[in-house]
Write a sequence for this structure.
């Protein structure tokens, strides 16, 4: 069982410490909605504070590991095989608008493989965690992907490209194809939690393109360890390199992938 392992202790301890300050910052967001500059600067400061805490705590537990950080970039460690991949606040726009759907995301990469992942929503106190070969968990409960086999009964999550990001027409074409044959599509704005929700069986599938490694590193392992299938949009395994992700339970993944591929 992953829970109680040395990695679990290091990762959950770091996330819990960063979350304490983050929750206080989130509670102040409403007071900062009066100007554009104020909230944006405040969220940047909150990101940096959380990232600093995560790095400090993870270095205590694994001092030789490197880092790939959303805010600070890549930091080489003495151990060249291992690095932490971290997004201190995934769902920054939600955070900025006072929407309690954001997460701390921590993935641990060994060579080219993710071997541990944590996604934690501090507001709901839901901590999703997985280690390679040891299963996926929500707090202390084992996770399994959903068992639905019919797209018509399935809820699929996605991410919508926003202003300044290319691919709007391609996204709309894919969205139309998925909408026509599923029970519904959800867009919640936090990719790490979308993947965690697939692992928990709340969503039957999720797709998005152009994500960053820190958005998905932890979530990819969660889905895999909960029994789900993961690929890029072409059915390959280049998710971390391309940022293109299709994840689903084993029965839905193939049909969903077929809808999303550009013919």
């Amino acid at each position: 069982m992953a829970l109680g392992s040395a990695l679990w202790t290091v990762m959950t301890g770091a996330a819990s410490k960063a979350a304490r300050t983050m929750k206080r910052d989130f509670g102040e967001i409403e007071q900062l909605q009066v100007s554009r500059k104020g909230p944006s600067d405040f969220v940047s400061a909150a990101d940096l504070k959380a990232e600093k805490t995560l790095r400090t705590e993870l270095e205590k537990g694994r001092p030789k590991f490197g880092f790939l950080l959303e805010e600070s970039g890549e930091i080489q460690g003495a151990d060249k095989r291992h690095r932490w991949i971290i997004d201190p606040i995934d769902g920054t726009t939600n955070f900025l608008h006072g929407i309690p759907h954001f997460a701390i995301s921590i993935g641990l990469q060994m060579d080219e493989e993710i071997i541990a992942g944590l996604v934690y929503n501090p507001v709901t106190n839901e901590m999703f965690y997985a280690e390679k070969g040891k299963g996926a968990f929500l707090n202390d409960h084992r996770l399994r992907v959903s068992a639905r086999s019919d797209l018509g009964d399935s809820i699929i999550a996605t991410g919508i490209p926003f202003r300044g990001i290319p691919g709007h027409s391609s996204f709309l074409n894919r969205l139309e194809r998925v909408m026509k044959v599923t029970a519904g599509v959800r867009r919640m704005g936090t990719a790490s939690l979308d993947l965690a929700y697939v692992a928990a069986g709340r969503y039957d599938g999720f797709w998005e393109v152009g994500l960053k490694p820190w958005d998905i590193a932890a979530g990819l392992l969660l889905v895999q360890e909960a029994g789900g299938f993961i690929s890029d949009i072409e059915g390959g395994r280049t998710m971390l390199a391309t940022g293109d992700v299709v994840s689903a339970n084993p029965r839905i993944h193939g049909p969903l992938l077929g809808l999303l591929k550009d013919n």
Observations:
- The domain at 151-260 is CATH 3.40.190.80 (D-Maltodextrin-Binding Protein; domain 2).
- The CA atoms of residues 166 and 210 lie 9 Å apart.
